Each structure stands twice: as C-alpha cells, then as structure tokens.
Amino acid sequence: MKNLVNWFEIYTSDFERAKKFYTEVFKLKLTDISTNSDRHSNMKYAVFSNTENKKYVNGALVKIDEAKPGVGGTLVYFSTEEINIELNKVEKAGGKIIRPKLQVGDFGFIALIEDTEGNMVGLRSMK
C-alpha cells in the first residue's frame, strides 16, 4: 500500500531563516532546487534530504507569493527517535514549543512546535 500522504510543503516568509531552523532542529540537509518558472520568478524551493528515497513522505520549504506561513494550515508531523531531543533544540533555533510531549495511547507520543515562520509542525515518536 502506498503512503496516503506523499508530499508536503512548509511555507516561509524568510526562506533562509526557515532553512536554518529546520537544519538546526532536525540535523538534516535541505537542497535548493530551481523551479524553472517565469511566472514564479521569486519562488524559492528547498527539498528535504530524504526525497531520493521513494519509501518515505517527501517535501520542501517553499517561498511563494500565493501561500503564506502560519498556524491553521496543513499540520506535518516529523518522525523522531525521542521527542525531547528535538524539543531541546527548538527555542535555541528561534522557534517555540506549543505543546510539550504528550502520550497518545498506542500511537506513541506527539508534541507541537512553531517554527521561525509561524508554522505549527508536529513531532512524533514511539518513546
């Protein structure tokens, strides 16, 4: 069975600041890519590092005039080994902890954070 979700975009107002936040908190690589679009000449796009592995959900940070960052949009959960590791990095990287680690029955643990752009994103782990 395929993953129901196969792509996500996290919108930014300050593209470089957002890239720095996700790199610092999750210790991952973001790769800038060209969109080859005259219509969206000011669009910026950076793909999360696991996009070459087709087994996982993939996505990007995006700066585009048509979509603004903020709470109330799509909520993306990042998988973690142990949520407190990433939570301990959030405020140092310029974000906020919205909801600390919370157990959700047999589904493990979740937490909510706000990135530097005002987007709320989730963390999820089994321990």
From TrEMBL:
Gene3D superfamilies: 2,3-Dihydroxybiphenyl 1,2-Dioxygenase, domain 1 (3.10.180.10). It holds the Pfam family Glyoxalase. InterPro entries: Anthracycline_SecMetBiosynth (IPR052164), Glyas_Bleomycin-R_OHBP_Dase (IPR029068), Glyas_Fos-R_dOase_dom (IPR004360), VOC_core (IPR037523). Signal peptide: none annotated. Residues 4-126 form the VOC domain. PANTHER family: GLYOXALASE-RELATED, VOC DOMAIN-CONTAINING PROTEIN. This is VOC family protein. It comes from Flavobacterium flavipallidum. The lineage of its organism: Bacteria, Pseudomonadati, Bacteroidota, Flavobacteriia, Flavobacteriales.
